[in-house]
Amino acid sequence: MIVESNVPLQPYNSFGIVARAQHLARIAGEADLAALRDDPAWRDAPRFVLGGGSNIVLTGDVKSLVLKVEIKGLRLLEETSRAWIVEAGAGETWHDAVEWMVRNGYPGLENLALIPGTVGGAPVQNIGAYGVELQDRFDSLDAFDWETGRSFSLDAAQCAFGYRDSVFKHARSSPSDFGLAGRAVITRVRFRLPKPWKPVAGYLDLERKMEETSNFTPSAQDIFDWICAIRRAKLPDWRVLGNAGSFFKNPTVTPEQCADIIARDPKIVHYPMDDGSIKLAAGWLIDACGWKGKSVGNAGVYERQALVLVNRGGRENPVTGGEVMTLAKAIQTSVYERFGIRLEPEPVVV
Ligand code: EPU
User: Is 5 a known active-site residue?
Assistant: First the structure.
């Protein structure tokens, strides 16, 4: 097992921030993880698991041992009368995996096309877009437990999925607590894609596509193509303009809080949730505070979607993690002062 030293991380984070990993190991399979754990030099070293780097802000060089997960593989594991079960290696690029499934006749993840990152990052975040969340299509996953040195499997309930949340985002606070942050490395994910396939096309943007094309019985490939077009029109491509997707989560408030805000700002975008709470559009809140198109140093608020912070300096003169966080804090302060709502960042700050 080769551990590389002083590795540039700019190619491995979607913001394009310059930073280095003091030590980085490329993980091609469970055996690499076991070998590292068996090595006294690395066994107790702090670790940082890197997937596609599409949801991180690097604020300096990373001193922990970076585990760059590169586990590959895509296969149909099982087909029953009720579902296709597809298994993917954690290091597969998310979008490529979705495209492969749609093209090979295993539909169900098309609404999640073009989300940056890797398969292994998807359950950590419980990624979601256009009416589908990962948890709706999840079967189980395999992970390597650094504490025991063994691989284990988790089903959906054990992953404790929430809105952009899972057991992998929480550290264990007591011995009975099941938090897996810093402990487990996801190696493989299995998707359960229900049969018969039904389109999820209730989102306004998708309804518009149906009207535009007069295609009211879209195939999974149609939805896939539409989602790609919608995202390309609205969200910056990180290869061209570095970013980490939505920078803040959409906050939820009580109906009373929402009524109070509506009294002051009648146009606020809000959606009732199944549990009785109200979700507010963070992009709208930030936009309403006048942030669209503004910058702090090389950190900017994207012109077409205020929820996305971008690297305005490109590869040559890239934004720093400090600039991104200064801008993020200024946005949080102004949204709090105007609406009394604390926005929570989505990416992991390293
Ligand atoms: N809005 C504005 N101004 C803005 C941005 C948004 O007024 O600058 C309004 C929009 O007009 C819309 C509402 O806010 O009425 C919501 O915006 P949008 O439909 O673009 O969705 P979102 O809440 O910004 C969420 C996810 C995205 C996902 C889309 C589509 C979060 C934090 N973000 O965005 O996920 O792709 O819905 O389902 O939940 C991500 O997590 O990185 C991500 C991109």
Answer: no
Neighbouring C-beta atoms of residue 347, cutoff 10 Å? 22
- How does pLDDT run across 223-241, given as a tens digit for each residue? 999 999 999 999 999 999 9
Looking from the CA of residue 204, the nearest atom of ligand 1 is 19
Q: Is the peptide bond between 266 and the residue preceding it cis, with omega within 30 degrees of 0?
A: no
Write the residue with the smallest CA distance to atom 34 of ligand 1.
246
Stated as kind and residue range, the H or E segment containing 328 is helix 321-339
To the query of whether residue 164 is one of the catalytic residues in this protein, the response is: yes
For the entire predicted model, the pTM comes to 0.94
Residue ranges per structural domain of the chain: 3-69, 74-194, 243-349
- The CATH architecture assigned to 243-349 reads Alpha-Beta Complex (3.90)
Class of domain 74-194: alpha beta
Distance CA 4, CA 228 (A): 36
From 56, 307, 339, give the residue whose CB has the most ligand 1 atoms within 8 Å, as the site to mutate: 307
Give the Å distance between the CA of 153 and the centre of ligand 1. 33
Please tell me which residue in 14, 54, 140, 246 is annotated as part of the active site.
246
Q: Write down the residue that tokens 């929480």 correspond to.
A: 170
